[in-house]
Design goal:
Layout: H1 7-14, H2 20-39, H3 44-49, H4 54-64, H5 68-87, H6 98-102, H7 105-121
């Protein structure tokens, strides 16, 4: 267990490697949570302790939010889809194919994450 002494430090650790949008959303939520706790009479230490371990929070956040690499891959995928749609307007829309209906943005981003990693090396 790592000792965290303030909310800012907790946020940095809990949001490590998450996308900028995810970090912004989590920062807002946690700040509101801590302010509510302080307004309710909690001490700053108790408010911080109520957040739990930042490493555990990071694991939970990664199940819900995109990481930076996944966000890059999702952006590249969206750009590719747009280009493909413009180049081939007769292709079926996403969601009209049974496989496409079952594929989520997160799983597509994870399968294209190696592409983003390769792009980082360029």
């Amino acid at each position: 267990m790592t000792l965290v002494t303030n909310v800012e430090e907790w946020l940095v650790r809990a949001t490590r490697d998450l996308s900028d949008d995810a970090v912004e959303h989590i920062r807002t939520e946690i700040t509101e949570h801590c302010q509510t706790a302080l307004d309710s009479g909690y001490t700053p230490e108790a408010a911080l302790a109520s957040l739990g371990e930042p490493k555990a929070a990071n694991r939970q956040y990664r199940r819900v939010y995109l990481t930076r690499k996944e966000a890059v891959a999702a952006g590249a995928l969206a750009s590719f889809r747009k280009s493909l749609k413009e180049a081939c307007p007769r292709l079926p829309r996403a969601g009209t194919h049974p496989v496409a209906e079952e594929t989520s943005l997160r799983s597509m981003a994870r399968t294209t994450a190696p592409i983003a990693t390769d792009l980082d090396r360029l």
